[in-house]
Amino acid sequence: MVLDIEMLRDFYASYSGEVANARKVLGRSLTYAEKVLYAHVYDKSGLRPYKRLDDYVDFRPNRVAMQDATAQMALLQFMNAGKDRVAVPATVHCDHLIRADVGVEKDLPEARKTNKEVYDFLQSVSRKYHIGFWAPGAGIIHQVVLENYAFPGGMMIGTDSHTPNAGGLGMVAIGVGGADAVDVLTGQPWELKMPRIIGVHLTGKLNGWASPKDVILYILGLLTVKGGTNAILEYYGEGVATLSATGRATICNMGAELGATCSIFPFDGNTEDYLRETGRDEVADMAVGVASDLVADADVYDHPDKYYDQIVEIDLGSIEPHLNGPFTPDAATPLSEMKTKGPREDYPMTVEVGLIGSCTNSSYEDLAKAASVARQAKAKGLKAKAQLIINPGSEQIYFTARRDGLIDDLQAIGGVIMTNACGPCIGQWHRHTDDNNRKNAIVTSFNRNFRRRADGNPNTFAFIGSPELTVALAIAGRLDFNPATDTLVNEEGVEVRLDEPSGDVFPPKGFAVDDKGFIPPTDDGRDTEVVISPTSQRLQRLEPFPAWDGHDYTDMPLLIKTQGKCTTDHISMAGPWLRFRGHLENISDNLLMGAVNAFNGESNKVLDRLDNEYKAVSSAAKDYKSHGINSIVVAEDNYGEGSSREHAAMEPRFLNVKVVLAKSFARIHETNLKKQGVLALTFVDKADYDKVREDDSISVTGLADFAPGRPLTVVLRHADGTEESFKAAHTYNSTQIEWFKAGSALNYAKEHMK
Does the keyword Iron-sulfur apply (predicted)? Predict the structure, then answer.
């Protein structure tokens, strides 16, 4: 059954006409990303050529996807919007709260028990507001979306930063915070600054142990975690046809690590095949009918320099297997260099755990290639020296892989099958180890490897590779093992070499599943009661944030001046804190606990100006709030890199942080701050960061004249009585300034809807 078929029929019936109109308005050929963007402009009557990186544009996405950790806060906000049902098709996916411990047989029942209150809330709120519900164990949000909802030419937003996974099927799919999701769920325009477009020209064909994962790992080394900010990566060239749809999804998924708005591949036979293999023949037929508009226009390919803001040339044949890490996904190392780089950088060279899965690499093709390595290892008398953990992407993937013997192959060398869920990728991992502070190395097929992310150990060196390479390194037990050139000694003392991995893109017998774990939207859920206990420690109804009082922010104490990388993991940790994602007051206790204080080099230890004692960041913030005092956070570049979690914006807002002043912001986090009424400012001169002292009283002036393009003034009153001032820039447009004045975007929207 094709889900949301009427929406899809309506979309494809009008899509080519929308593209033709956009081409006429712009008076030129269009890239594929432009076609999708312009086809989804909210108000077509005012359609005009929008300037990239300058104009804010209102869009009308086709659907919304939410994972259980972020859905809680998104739906708590939606409940305050006064609507009877969602305005577009939407789904909730229970994938983040399941802890990987001993295996699926025990872990899934334990998760259902432990998280029952949250699951019951999400299921009831889904029933009430006409939202599809994917139960615990059904699978990881982005794999489930790819199998059931993603469609060429569409636009989707999701409350998870890896929503761009669907770009593998030709969608503009963008990760957002819950407040953005509420805009779309209520039928309001969804705003995005028109992104620049980076053309990625692929030629040649992957060979040997190289995989689609290595393509994006290579690009990360090339562009870094900031290189895609406010950009869409559009892939084109003859090399595209050599990549499967799921391989493309892997590449788009990790485009989030570049800071990219999203990534997108054009429609072709591989896309069509995936739609048909996953039971969506009618969608495939409709896409084929408009195929010429599901790719860039011919002139774009003939003269790419005229249409793309930047062009990246990649010969797939030159790509070799990579291990990216540790601690950041753009630390790219070709595997052939690890023998010299590892000892030079003092990496722990013994691989203790290999982990396969996550939304990035959990397709049938991924498991088939990983299983091919395991199968031949067993045949050649090899056993895994490292622990091997597998999280399949969906119940459909798991059921099919088990039927086809792939699961048996992985278990035969010691693999442990965990639930179809995110698990260790987002810190939901009870790692069994002798010392969780010991320096060690793990290899994953995940997308992020920030310090402490997987297991909470700051000394775990996490490296990212493909699933097949992860299995090979788990077998070898060494970071510097290169399966293309090195041999291993088997149980009989014989040197053997692993053959190149191979695996079917699609299961030869087709996909199969007994129960996908899906509960479709109800026709009328108005009588459904959404119950939240007033004494719950996991769920808490939201109170609107107060509106701006009309005055400048004066004499604010510095809550923390962060040093170096400060991701959303540092601002609002996941792992054990995931259980509080629906309770703003409780989760605020983790505020910035992972950030490094620039004045003492320590985490979660800041000066409380009221008593001159050092304490946890949240404790200092609570002290200021209890005395009616506003505070400010100062940070370095790319502040808020990583997840889309809006808790990283809502927590400081809840604890009276009025301003975040950074050298630069990651796109999603900057938007989240704006949505929640926190003033997001950047240093005009980044050197001014060094002027901020630990015991400063800081003011932000000029708010009475707050206007687009007009900088504000920051005044530092030092403890010695001296003062310094400098300009701070912002990217607020007129509507976003109204959000600020109203106290939040939701406050503004509710008033606007009245």
Answer: yes
